[in-house]
């Protein structure tokens, strides 16, 4: 079920907004959920095997199991193109998506194990399905790592890895196995996303923690819809504290630009769901021979 709820208070806000706006086209967007369990629905027998299964790892700070910033928008874009689709987030209990697991583990190890085990169970149950592994931000690291944990016969069912704001090159730079198509969405240009971009030579690195956290005051203005605005407010509250708790990592990064680049979480990094790039990634997935041919 897609419209299971973000939280009771959010639902109340969303319901009030619906009652006051009354535009049916906004209904879907306002009630977009941060949780998707399409693969579990198949494994439990509530749904038949789907032609295409997508497992998505949310980014740092994101809620539910697919978050609010990229997962639901990617899910909606895929659903508009693929009829037989199971979309699911990496189990939240296995993947806390904190700044600590991002920095200390280079993407949560337990999240990667959980992703691999979900994919393995699904492929055992639905051997004719094509699997796509995906993730945004720290979730992209979890996606790379999870893919690398799969047994060869399971990996053979994975047709693509598709990531958003992917910092893999700044960490272990996992290679993508031959036979798995790789598609990476990264914001370039003047508001480039430093987590996935090559930085220009004149790039101005932060010299204090507030250089990183201050721009986040803009984040609530970048959100689209109730869930994102609420999440943005929560990030503005939590990010400085979590970054402060990782101060040792910041001090170490002052002498190492790769490590500093890992910390360059910018407000733009949160716009993949609204800047057309989730639709672009869905076009890529829908055009894969193993997907288009089903
Ligand atoms: C990452 O690995 C690729 C090859 O898989 C290589 O071309 C690239 O230079 C590496 N990048 C970094 C930053 O190590």
UniProtKB/TrEMBL annotation:
Q: What is this protein called?
A: cutinase
Q: Write down the species.
A: Mycena albidolilacea
Name one process (GO BP) from the record. Answer: carbohydrate catabolic process
Stored Gene3D superfamilies: alpha/beta hydrolase
List the catalytic activities from the record: cutin + H2O = cutin monomers
Q: Name one GO molecular function term.
A: cutinase activity
Say which domain of life the source belongs to.
Eukaryota
GO CC annotation: extracellular region
What residue stretch is flagged as signal peptide?
Answer: 1-22
EC identifiers of the protein: 3.1.1.74
S-S bonds: 49-126
């Amino acid at each position: 079920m897609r419209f299971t709820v973000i939280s009771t208070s959010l639902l109340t806000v969303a319901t009030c907004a619906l009652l006051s706006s009354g535009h049916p086209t906004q209904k879907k967007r306002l009630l977009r959920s941060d949780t998707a369990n399409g693969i579990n629905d198949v494994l439990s027998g509530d749904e038949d095997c789907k032609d295409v299964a997508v497992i998505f790892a949310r980014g740092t700070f994101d809620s539910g199991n697919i978050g609010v910033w990229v997962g639901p928008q990617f899910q909606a874009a895929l659903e508009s193109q693929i009829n037989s689709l199971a979309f699911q987030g990496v189990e939240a209990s296995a993947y806390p998506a904190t700044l600590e697991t991002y920095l200390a583990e280079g993407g949560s190890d337990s999240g990667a194990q959980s992703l691999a085990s979900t994919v393995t169970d699904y492929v055992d149950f639905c051997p004719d399905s094509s699997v796509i592994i995906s993730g945004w931000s720290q979730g992209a690291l979890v996606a790379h790592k999870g893919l690398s944990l799969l047994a060869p016969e399971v990996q053979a069912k994975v047709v693509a890895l598709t990531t958003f704001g992917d910092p893999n090159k700044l960490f272990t730079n996992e290679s993508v196995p031959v036979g798995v198509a790789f598609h990476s969405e990264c914001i370039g240009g003047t508001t480039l996303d430093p987590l996935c971009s090559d930085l220009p030579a004149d790039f101005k690195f932060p010299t204090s923690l507030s250089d990183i956290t201050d721009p986040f005051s803009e984040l609530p203005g970048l959100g689209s819809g109730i869930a994102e605005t609420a999440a943005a407010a929560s990030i503005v509250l939590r990010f400085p504290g979590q970054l402060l708790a990782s101060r040792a990592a910041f001090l170490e990064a002052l002498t190492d630009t790769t490590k500093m680049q890992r910390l360059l979480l910018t407000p733009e990094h949160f716009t993949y769901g609204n800047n057309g790039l989730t639709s672009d990634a869905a076009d890529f997935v829908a055009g894969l021979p193993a997907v288009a041919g089903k």
